[in-house]
């Protein structure tokens, strides 16, 4: 295998598999490739194997078979040398409520044998500043909102310079404002050159912040690549607004439009495969005296791509 190709990926797995005792196949022969500099969304419904994969990557559990490499080094074998360059936020931050945010970070840093005590205060101050908690740094952590706690957890991952950040469901449980804060922080970190790998069960979240994504379903990788390409893989839906819905649906059906839905004055359907031009469909409607108020093709979302690829709906609950 081309060694350069391996080192260009920040996370690379080959046939990575985890079968739990009791037989549960949580991750099934996963080949993941996370390019340097990407914001990589690891997407899948609850139970699809995301956390299990992340735990293997971070050396917390051993794979049943297959290999994984972080920053070009095999894990778990080289975990000790590579993990200091990787910041991780898995399963929510462990915080002491009776300590201030600042003291939580000082305590966390003191427990890290690789951390230099002489630079501790300055690094803690910089990390608090990074996540926008300077003003609240002296407050007890138990008085923090969930979003602030999550930002403090991120600060703990940022006490050292990191080449890679691994975040497991970083916006889980947050209100919309908290979610926005974490997303903009992720964007800022990426702009500074850190590769960010984050798991999520929220499709629109991935579309908003990620450059690349991998979609998991039942332990298997369904697809991975740049988000724009993944969404483009699914064809958009045709949307026609007209008072003559029944007639419009009939004409569109005759021209190969499938999966038609009619709601009030809106007819939607799947564009036929091949080189049928939406403009030709519009012309056919007009020829049949359908009064077309608006005619367009809705951009395909990652959700459309997911449904097209797996034939499943995307479970966004929980
Ligand atoms: N320690 C374990 N022992 C047995 N089965 C497990 C264990 N951990 C996870 N599983 C199972 O493995 C599958 C994948 O779980 P995993 O937690 O990796 O999914 P996930 O995509 O991260 O979902 P979630 O978002 O709910 O954490 C699930 O069916 C889960 O029940």
UniProtKB/TrEMBL annotation:
ABC transporter domain location: 11-243
Pfam family, one: ABC_tran
A molecular function GO annotation: ATP binding
Coiled coil: none
Entry keywords, A to Z: ATP-binding, Nucleotide-binding, Transport
SUPFAM superfamilies per UniProt: P-loop containing nucleoside triphosphate hydrolases (SSF52540)
Sequence similarity: Belongs to the ABC transporter superfamily.
Name under which the protein is recorded: ABC transporter ATP-binding protein
Natural source organism: Streptomyces chryseus
